[in-house]
Amino acid sequence: MQQWLFIRTLLGHVPLVVKLLFAVLGSGVLAGALVHLLEPERFSTWFEGIWWAFITVSTVGYGDFVPESTITRVVAIVLIFVGVGFMTLLVTSFAGAAVSINQSAKEGVISFIGEDHIVVIGWNERSRQSIENIQLALPQIKIVLIDETLDELPKEFKNVHFVKGNSSEDSILKQANISLARSVLITAKHQGSEFTADARSILTTLAVKGQNPDVYTTVEILTKEQLANAKRAGADKCVESTTLTGSVLTSNLLHQQTSDVINQFLEYNEKNLLEFELVTEKLVGRSLIDTLPNFYKKGMLIIGLKRSGQILFHPHSSLLLEPNDELIVIKSNKAT
C-alpha cells in the first residue's frame, strides 16, 4: 500500500506532457510487439512491428505493412483509438505549452539563462534609444530589459528578453541573470521628485553590485548632489542627464547649431566611428603633433586623449605620449 502511494505521489509531480509522451511510446511499443508475435511472417522483426505501430499512431499510414488476421486488426483498432488519442493530446499539449511560454516571455516572467549580456533597467525613451543603438552596434549581444511599468515587451524589440518587476529586488535581478551580465545601464525614473528618482537608482545600484560586484554599471543621475552617493553605491560611471541637457540647451541658445554639432558627434559614436586607440610602443615618447599626419593618412582624426581615466580634448600639440594612453579618434567611412 505504501509503495502504491509513493508511486502515485511520484507520478503526481510528473508533467502532463511527459506522461503523454510515455503513453504514446508505451502504446506504440506494446502494439508493435503484439503484431510481431501474432503475425511473424508479415512483421518479421520487432522493429517492423514497432515501426508500423508508430506510423499508425502518427496517422501517417504509409501502407507498407498491413495486418491481415482478425486478432491483429483488433489490436490495430485498439491502437488507433488509444494511441491516436494520446498522440493528439500530446501534440495539443506541446502547442499549448509553446503558446504559454511565448506569452510568459512577453509578460516578463521567464528567467534569462544566457551570459555576457547587457541589462537595461527602466523603460523610457532613453532606454529605448540605448537598446536600438546597442543592437545596431552589437547585433549579436543579448539584451535584458527590467521594468515594472510595462505590461509586456514592445513588439519592435523581438530580440530583447523582458523581465517584469522591481529592479531593486534580488529575485528580479536573479531572473535577469545579473551575476553573469557584461554591463548594466540604470536609467532614472521620471516620476515624482528628482530626489526620489535618484534614490531609487542608487538602491538599484546597490542591489546590482550586491549580486555582481564586477559588472560595469552606468547610472543616470538627475541631481548633482546624488553623484557622490551613486559612486559610493558602486556605480562605475554616472551620467548627470539634467546637467547635460541644460548645457546643450544653453549652448544652443548662445551659439546656434551647437545641438547639430553634438548630434553629429553622437552619430559618429553610434556608427562605431568614434574609437579609443591604445598608444603603441612605437608612439610612446613622441609628441602629439608628430602622430597626427600618420593617423590622418589612415582616415582617422585625433580629437583628444585619455590618460589615467581623464579625458583631454584638444590637448597641446607638444604633449608627449605615454604608455597606456588612449587616443580618441574619429574614423572616416573610408578608413581601413
From TrEMBL:
<keyword id="KW-1133">Transmembrane helix</keyword>
<dbReference type="InterPro" id="IPR013099">
    <property type="entry name" value="K_chnl_dom"/>
</dbReference>
<feature type="transmembrane region" description="Helical">
    <location>
        <begin position="74"/>
        <end position="99"/>
    </location>
</feature>
<dbReference type="InterPro" id="IPR036291">
    <property type="entry name" value="NAD(P)-bd_dom_sf"/>
</dbReference>
<protein>
    <submittedName>
        <fullName>Ion channel</fullName>
    </submittedName>
</protein>
<dbReference type="Pfam" id="PF02254">
    <property type="entry name" value="TrkA_N"/>
</dbReference>
<feature type="transmembrane region" description="Helical">
    <location>
        <begin position="20"/>
        <end position="38"/>
    </location>
</feature>
<dbReference type="Pfam" id="PF07885">
    <property type="entry name" value="Ion_trans_2"/>
</dbReference>
<dbReference type="InterPro" id="IPR036721">
    <property type="entry name" value="RCK_C_sf"/>
</dbReference>
<dbReference type="GO" id="GO:0005886">
    <property type="term" value="C:plasma membrane"/>
</dbReference>
<dbReference type="InterPro" id="IPR050721">
    <property type="entry name" value="Trk_Ktr_HKT_K-transport"/>
</dbReference>
<dbReference type="GO" id="GO:0008324">
    <property type="term" value="F:monoatomic cation transmembrane transporter activity"/>
</dbReference>
<keyword id="KW-0812">Transmembrane</keyword>
<keyword id="KW-0472">Membrane</keyword>
<dbReference type="GO" id="GO:0006813">
    <property type="term" value="P:potassium ion transport"/>
</dbReference>
<dbReference type="InterPro" id="IPR003148">
    <property type="entry name" value="RCK_N"/>
</dbReference>
<feature type="domain" description="RCK N-terminal">
    <location>
        <begin position="115"/>
        <end position="241"/>
    </location>
</feature>
<feature type="transmembrane region" description="Helical">
    <location>
        <begin position="50"/>
        <end position="67"/>
    </location>
</feature>
